[in-house]
């Protein structure tokens, strides 16, 4: 259900911009998803196909770009990108990460006709 509410906000933003641009149709929406956001691109596209029916964005393709997780070590203050499932700090080897990036969902650009 998380993706459904996310998808509805995406659609709202897309439609607002498309209308402002005087577009007749939205072709493509480029979206950035952080690795830690827990959002699955395929689910967003799936919901989008439903919620965009009879709007300017009906049939639009969503293109997802994933941004890596970024952590700040709460022990030594280093910032780092975790390697796969290993979230330990590369400097002090402690496991006290605080997420400082990779949780975002952003609409990067919208392509319209
Ligand atoms: Zn550290």
Describe the protein's architecture and organization.
- The protein is of the alpha+beta class and 113 residues long.
- It has one domain: hypothetical protein PF0899 fold (2-Layer Sandwich), CATH 3.30.2320.80.
- It has two helices and six strands, in the order αβαβββββ.
- α1 packs across α2.
- It is elongated.
- The two termini are 31 Å apart.
- 19% of the residues are buried.
- Residues 73, 75-76, 78, 89, 91-92, 94 line the site of zinc ion.
Helix content: 25-40%
Radius of gyration: 18 Å
Query: Which runs of at least 5 residues are low in confidence (pLDDT < 50)?
Result: none
At CATH level 3, the topology is hypothetical protein PF0899 fold
Q: What would CATH call the architecture?
A: 2-Layer Sandwich
Q: Quickly give the structural class.
A: alpha+beta
Task: Give average pLDDT, whole number.
Answer: 95
Number of helices: 2
Identify the strand order in the major beta sheet: 2-1-6
Q: Give the terminus-to-terminus CA distance.
A: 31 Å
Elements, N to C (H/E): HEHEEEEE
What's the CATH C level? Alpha Beta
The strand count comes to 6
Salient structural properties:
113 residues; alpha+beta; hypothetical protein PF0899 fold; three-stranded mixed sheet; 2 helices; binds zinc ion
Quick take:
The chain has 113 residues and is of the alpha+beta class. The protein has two helices and six strands, in the order αβαβββββ.
């Amino acid at each position: 259900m998380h993706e459904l509410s996310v998808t509805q906000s995406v659609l709202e933003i897309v439609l607002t911009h498309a209308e402002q641009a005087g577009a007749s149709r939205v072709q493509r929406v480029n979206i950035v998803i952080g690795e830690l956001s827990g959002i699955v691109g395929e689910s967003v596209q799936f919901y989008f196909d439903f919620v965009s029916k009879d709007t300017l964005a009906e049939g639009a393709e969503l293109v997802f770009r994933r941004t890596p997780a970024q952590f700040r070590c709460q022990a030594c203050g280093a910032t780092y990108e975790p390697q796969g499932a290993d979230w330990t700090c590369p400097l002090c080897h402690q496991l006290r990460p605080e997420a400082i990036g990779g949780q975002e969902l952003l609409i990067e650009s919208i392509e319209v006709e």
